[in-house]
Amino acid sequence: MKILRIVSSIIVGIVFMFSGIVKAIDPLGTAYKFNDYFQAFNLGFLKPVSLILAVILFTAEFISGFAVLSGYRRKEGIWGVMILMIIFTPLTLILALTNPVSDCGCFGDAIHLTNWQTFWKNVVLIIFTIILFAGRKKARNILTPVSEWMVISAVIIMFVGFAALNLRYLQIIDFLPYKTGVNIPEAMKIPEGMPADEYKSTFIYEKDGVRKEFTLDNYPADDTTWKFIDQLTVLVKKGYVPPIHDFSITAPDGQDIAEQVLASPGYTLIMISSKLKDADPSDLSKGFELGVHCMASGMGFLVLTASGSDELSRYNNGFTFYTGDETTLKTIVRSNPGYLLLNHGKIVGKWSSASLPPKGEFSASMTPSQLKKMNRKSPVLTYYTLTVSVIIIALLISSLFFKRKAFSEI
Fold it and tell me: In the list 25, 113, 226, 274, which could disulfide-bond 205, CB 3.0-4.6 Å?
């Protein structure tokens, strides 16, 4: 039984820590998933606190997993994972049965699971959680209570700081389809041999006041006594969906110019603001100044937003505002505004307002080495991530050597 509890600690601890980490890498993505749930369950009034709830969720997941795996405040960690499993196991069953949201987002954008896959994953995970919960009284402190709480508090602060830096400078690891290096036109293609959507068509005919449904195999094509009434087409099997399938840029006249922009052989910088009213005015001004510089340097520049015409009418700065789907824009870049640099349809640069290089570095003759330098992750985010990773790993390793009886007594 002791070995089973140790195995359960390892499995539960790693899964919860991983789930918390991938969500913290993309805090806005987690907040958007909360918004999907709020919309599905008619809880739209909670949208303003979605980011706060996202931070609470992935911090609770990570710290509960860390406590279970390391042994620092193990009892509290076991209670944490049990409470989370009690909440999310029935919730994922409801999602599997009703399917209001196609992807639960339990592992962010790193791993996509269907609602049924998520539910069965939770069924397996709750078994290990119950094993831990049943033996929680056997858990022993590996340090003094005060020392363990100091460790847990420090880890929470470091972890929230990690999420905040990812929010400011864009994700340390980009799991989104619009990552640097992706060729958008290629990512929109359906490879040869991949399955297409399968539909079932049903034909409704009427004869002598009686209506009957037919399929393509048996409908009365040659029997004129049957009168055609209606046709129903239902998707029975989803086919292959390319990584990028919803990229569009709509001009003020309603024309989609996405193909034109993607085919452009030079550099085109797209300033993306999902909603202009939600962006910091100083960040917008910075972007507009960069746009003037880019166009003067021979580069293409356009502003892409999901804002309505009433909001766009407030801006009279000489730029043409193009529109796109709000969800797609939020998927392209987790910043408002954010920036996407294209060269013949390939993403060669991606920045938030905070990580945007100085405007003097943008020109029509940028070299690969210059782009590589411009695309380097923020040193603050990089060094912070490395430092926190080393500290967390050191704490996990040290927990094995502080008091080995922490495992031998449970």
Answer: 226
Contact yes or no for 103/114 (Cβ under 8 A): yes
Q: How does strand 210-214 pair with strand 300-305?
A: unpaired
DSSP bridge partners of 352: 338
Residue 117 has pLDDT above 60, yes or no: yes
H/E run at residue 302 = strand 300-305
Q: How many CA atoms lie within 13 A of 129 on its CB side?
A: 25
The amino acid occupying position 367 is T
pLDDT tens for 352-361 read: 999 999 999 9
Backbone φ and ψ for 334, nearest 5 degrees, come out as: -90, 55
The C-alpha atoms of residue 323 and residue 304 are separated, in whole angstroms, by: 5
29/34 Cα distance (integer angstroms) = 9
DSSP type of residue 208? T
Give yes or no for a cis peptide into 177 (omega within 30° of 0): no
